[in-house]
Amino acid sequence: MSSFEEAETEETVTCLHLTFYHPCQDEKMMFRCLNFCKREQVRADETAKFGRDSTVCRYSLMDTRVSRIQFSLQFFRKLHTSEYCFEIKNLSKKTKLTVNQTELGYLNKIDLPWKCIICFGDYQILAEIQEGESTDYFETHLHLAEAPILQERCLPCLPSLQPIPENGISPSFFLSQGKSPTEIDENEL
């Protein structure tokens, strides 16, 4: 047997991908303390806190409009399963936090969906969970978005803003045919 065959099986790690956006990120540099594009290990029993206070928060946002501790993420295993999840809790007394369409007040918490958008103030964070098996730690991988997340992503939880005409034919159908819609008298049909 080779040493490769005798080696212990590698354990996969749950990774939480977080993509951050703020309309003033270029001028105000509120994400300058975040470590982008490099995975970071977090012990499973730690609570990952996000906010303005760098002495308490693992992930600091340099903005006076952000609460000292804005929200936290806690890694856990669902009861009677081998599935690992995250719980998000709003720790801001002043700012409501929304996860997709669910609004969380102070100390409210919910399970984080596998793919969702977290919003507070002008901040938008796309969260995506990549499953793993490790019970000792999870990883975070932070990214910076160039454009607003709510406009560039089309998630099923977000309502469509496109009006549906009475005839059931979408205006985009005409545009894809190279024609523009024209108004005709119903008697001409």
From TrEMBL:
Domain FHA, residue spans: 49-121
Gene Ontology process terms (BP): innate immune response; positive regulation of canonical NF-kappaB signal transduction
UniProt keywords, alphabetically: Cytoplasm, Immunity, Innate immunity
Signal peptide (residue range): none
SUPFAM superfamilies: SMAD/FHA domain (SSF49879)
Source organism: Platysteira castanea
Pfam families per UniProt: FHA
Subcellular location: Cytoplasm
GO CC terms: cytoplasm
Family: Belongs to the TIFA family.
Main location: cytoplasm
Protein name (record): TRAF-interacting protein with FHA domain-containing protein A
